């Protein structure tokens, strides 16, 4: 086997999913993660079609279902909490739904025995030669690997070190969002959720963890903003400034934001690249082809991509040139289909009075039209843009 020792940057979903399959095929996987451990919290993620097949082949469906969630009714309300429109149960759920933090922990538990995890550290340099890659770290000593995989998300460090500044590849969709956990102070039941919107803003509260807590989300429309994506205090202040003075449950949610055990903020953006590989380095998941949360397919693409990348490395007997090329060829149609799902994101956070009014009318009539089924079926159609090989 030509390539044996593989470094993976990122311990969220894509990285551990890749490590799972590399272990099966006899590779030596090491995962490096900037955070001190597996990150908790996050929003609900779901699986459809081929992604479900991957989970079944991992024999992890039973374990994942222990943490399964299911989005309930979504209700659009006004400032007095009066119902304006609603969507039925399952509109935003796939075949299987789970909170991102719970999934990351399941993958970690399934791989920690055979994968080396380096937490609280990061890559500072990648130097390739004919025989491998020398990787320098912020805290650890430099080490040699055969390959480096960037599975480190939208703001990928591996991508920046290998391909250049992210501004070349980032396509901003005009929205920023934050999500964090709160007590279920609104007493929401059965994983139901509420959305309240004003011009250029949307706030949501969804029941979570069997109704014992809730997830709050803030969205606002904006051109691209220069900010430190590692400075949580700065990000919270951005949310506070944007939503100060808003009605409904917003004042209470802003207070709870400072007490939240988790907080995530980022732009709604896509990563668009002509290639995901360079020499012995390749990108996986959001690092190479983020479709944005508006697509609802990011985690599915990460899990499918991990399965195919590892499978092609095994099939090519570790020849990264052959494996990387086949991985790209197979994944491109799926990525293209999933990124198209995010088109029209501006209707989720309308910036004109007409679009705000029109979006409410669409929400009102959608449950009673054939479009409802089309909206539910579109993600599944995108997911089926790929057929999975059986590497066994």
From TrEMBL:
A Gene Ontology molecular function term of the record: FAD binding
Listed InterPro entries: FAD-bd, FAD/NAD-bd_sf, FAD_aromatic-hydroxylase
All copies of domain FAD-binding, residue ranges: 5-316
UniProt xrefs under PANTHER family: MONOOXYGENASE (PTHR46865:SF2), OXIDOREDUCTASE-RELATED (PTHR46865)
Protein name according to UniProt: FAD-dependent oxidoreductase
Species name: Mucilaginibacter corticis
Taxonomic lineage: Bacteria, Pseudomonadati, Bacteroidota, Sphingobacteriia, Sphingobacteriales
